[in-house]
Amino acid sequence: MEISMTPVGMIHSPFCNLINMPIQPKGAKETYATIEFDPSLQEGLKDLDGFSHVYLIYYFHKMKEPKLSVIPFNDKTHTPRGVFATRAPMHPNRIGLSVVELVKIEENIVTIKGIDVLDGTPLLDIKPYIENFDKVEGEVKSGWMKASLDDVSKKRSDGRFVEE
Asked: Would you say 26 and 152 are in contact if contact means Cβ atoms under 8 Å apart?
């Protein structure tokens, strides 16, 4: 089976260097960015402005080669973990996911807040966050990840996943 995707837009953020940038939206709560959609797709943005948050699905275009075992940023034990049990960018298909606040839409430009993505990152898709669909009820387990919200907010990237 062959799969091909074309980016729907480009993410423009203040992060021009992968070193020392936030690794999750919680660490970039006040950071604004824009997404420039292909003008031919502008009609698809209709009604999105009624949502407070959106999922961004993007392509890690500056990532090193994929690995099946990584040491994640927030693993205080520095234990290698299976890549599918992490949010590290080293996954085989190089796909990233962030939930961000939707600020406004003007023609084909979407302004967002809480972005943890490198400037120039290709956006593959955008989807609305819908609490009645997406909010998890009951017991929630975070596996090996024991970092506090404060730890996650303060953690910054280093060179471990950056192309050399």
From this structure: yes
Instruction: Name the residue with tokens 């959106």.
Output: 54
Main-chain phi, psi angles of 27, to 5 degrees: -90, 5
User: With contact defined as beta carbons under 8 Å apart, do 122 and 59 qualify?
Assistant: yes
For residue 136, what is the DSSP state? P
Cα distance between residue 6 and residue 22, in whole Å: 26
Report the SS3 class of residue 137. coil
Domain boundaries of the chain, sorted by first residue: 9-156
Write out pLDDT tens, residues 114-135. 998 999 999 999 999 999 888 8
Model pTM score: 0.84
Q: Could you tell me the fold of the domain covering 9-156?
A: Elongation Factor Tu (Ef-tu); domain 3 (2.40.30)
* pLDDT tens digits for range 145-157: 666 666 656 656 6
